[in-house]
Amino acid sequence: MIRFDSVSKHYPDGTVAVDSLDLVAPSGQITVFVGPSGCGKTTSLRMINRMIEPTSGSIWLDDQDTSRIATHELRRQIGYVIQHAGLFPHRTIVDNIATVPLLLGWDRNKARARGRELLERVGLPAHFAERYPAQLSGGQQQRVGVARALAADPPVMLMDEPFSAVDPIARDQLQEEFLRLQNELGKTIVFVTHDIDEAIKLGDQVAVLRVGGRLAQLATPAQLLSEPADAFVAAFVGRDRGYRALGFTPVGELATHDEPTIAMGSALTGAEAADGWLLAVDDQGAPQGWLRLADSRPGADTTVTEDLLHRGGTVAGADASLRAVLDACLSSPSGRGVIVDEAGRLAGTVTASEVLALIERRAPADPNPQPVGGGGQ
Amino acid sequence: MIDYYRQNSDQINGWLGWHARLSALPLLFGLLIALPLGWLARRYRWLYPPVVTVAGLLYTIPSLALFILLPGLLKTRILDPTNVVVALTVYTVALLVRVVADALGSVSEDVLQAATAMGYRRLGRLLKVELPIAVPVIAAGLRVAAVSNVSLVSVAALIGVPELGQLFTNGFQLSYQTPILLGILLSVLLALAFDSVIQLVARVLTPWRRAVPR
């Protein structure tokens, strides 16, 4: 647990970066600091490992006052990840990762073995170990940055816009893997971003800060979307928040319809579908895409092949959020959203109006929603 | 020229050896002094302008003047090679202080921030992170200083220090070109040798620079 106890940071020129911040970042959870530039989010983060010293107030790591721990010792027990990774250009990847273990006096071989283990853990191939940072892409460097922060297995991790500088596809992937990793490791994480979508996607709780370093709201992502505390938070959370909030509501009991299917590779002869759309599945029963019979009528011996399929539709798991299920409907060319079971096999289809009926029937916003699994949000 | 060398090889080799020593020692001492000074100029930004200005001014003192003044200051004899070593150390420091400060300044803010956040203390960060990354820039400065030293040492011949400059004074006194040409040739070769050694050492210290970018 990290506790801010009326922490302020004033600069001699009169700037107030952080104004009496009181906040608890619970153990094993991701707390996101989000806000416009100048809101003191990075300053707050850096006060935790004393890269910046508070003007007043204190910050506690569990029951320890951080101002009473020698800075280098404090920092060695806190993982730190920054925007451009900040890898050491003169050290190989494995030695970069082994930095903190070596500082803690681990045996060199043990430290490097740990480095290799983490390389794999963050999804990089083993042969990257002996490369230098300049030989890696931005996204790969950022993975190494995460691995380096994890090397000594610190209970606390500070992450300062770690995924902001990579391209959108790599960012999405990094975020997914970060959540997967956090699921396994359960670190106490403070994460800074200016991107509200990232905050909502990653945070267990989100602290919205306003310019001048004041806490505007501390809430779960779902609460933030459904009950913004004031006009500033509402404006900052932005558009589509009704739709995005659906991402935090599990769909629950979902009555699906049976959907006629056709197997990949089978002949189209005699295939019928009420509205001209037929769902193709592989031999495990996993949906592959929609087939429009009108497009593919010609020869009697035509079979279902990859290139005949429309792949626009998303697929939602049976335990997915209302948002994922609704999106499956809206994106499906047939208008029927494809629902799959845990193994990815077709469970049936639903229509958008059925999902809307579910949304209308549901109780007004649940302030403590259950976490939503699979299928994306 | 080859005949001239053969006839005087013992003496000339002796001069070459001295020349090498008188250029190399100041390079070493100069680097050792410039490192902390450059670090200070980097650490306390307000020190940078005065340090760089003073260093620049030092370099403008004529070498001959310094060779003659130093014995008085150091209480050494006029012919003592210490005078030459001290004078050239002054020039080397003058050249390298700025180089060291700029080389340390070339280390990216992200890297410094990461190193501090990992828990490096000031000295550890300097020795393990900043200096290794600064090697290429410092080496480039050392190459300039080495060549400058080889050339400046010759001037000491005027006060009678035995080194390749003797070939120039001899040639001048005898109105004989051969020793002068030989002196130039050997100076150039010596400078090239220093240059190669510095490049080689820098190469060995920076395997990361040879890694092919993706």
What features would you describe in this structure?
The complex is a heterodimer of chains A (377) and B (214). Chain A has 2 domains: 2-248, 3-Layer(aba) Sandwich (Rossmann fold); 261-361, CBS-domain. In chain A, 30% of the residues lie in helices and 24% in strands. Chain A has 13 helices and 17 strands. Residues 373-377 of chain A have low confidence and may be disordered. Chain B has 214 residues and is mainly alpha-helical. Chain B has a single domain, classed as MetI-like (MetI-like fold), CATH 1.10.3720. The radius of gyration of chain B is 20 Å and the shape is elongated. The A-B interface holds A 49, 51, 72-76, 78, 80, 82-92, 99-100, 103, 131-132, 134-137, 145, 148, 158 and B 108, 110-111, 113-121, 124, 129, 132-133, 206, 208, 211-214.
Tags for this model:
heterodimer, A: 377 residues, alpha/beta, Rossmann fold, CBS-domain, six-stranded mixed sheet, four-stranded antiparallel sheet, 13 helices, 17 strands, globular, B: 214 residues, mainly alpha, MetI-like fold, 10 helices
Report the C-alpha radius of gyration of chain B, rounded: 20 Å
**In DSSP terms, counting alpha (H) and pi (I) runs of 4 or more, how many helices of chain A?**
13
Unreliable sequence segments of chain B: none
Total separate domains of chain B: 1
Structural class of the helix and strand makeup of chain A? alpha/beta
Question: Looking at this structure, what is the CATH superfamily of the largest domain in chain A?
Answer: P-loop containing nucleotide triphosphate hydrolases
Mean pLDDT of chain A: 88
Task: Please state the overall shape of chain A, judged from the principal axes of the Cα atoms.
Answer: globular
What's the CATH topology label of chain B?
MetI-like fold
Main beta-sheet annotation of chain A: 6 strands, mixed
Number of folding domains of chain A?
Answer: 2
Strand content of chain B: under 5%
Mind telling me which CATH architecture of the largest domain in chain A this is? Answer: 3-Layer(aba) Sandwich
Oligomer: heterodimer
Shape of chain B: elongated
Instruction: Tell me the strand percentage band of chain A.
Output: 15-25%
Roughly how many Å apart are the termini of chain A?
28 Å
**CATH level-3 fold name of the largest domain in chain A:** Rossmann fold
CATH superfamily of chain B: MetI-like
In whole angstroms, the N-to-C terminal distance of chain B is 52 Å
Count of discrete alpha- or pi-helical segments spanning 4 or more residues of chain B: 10
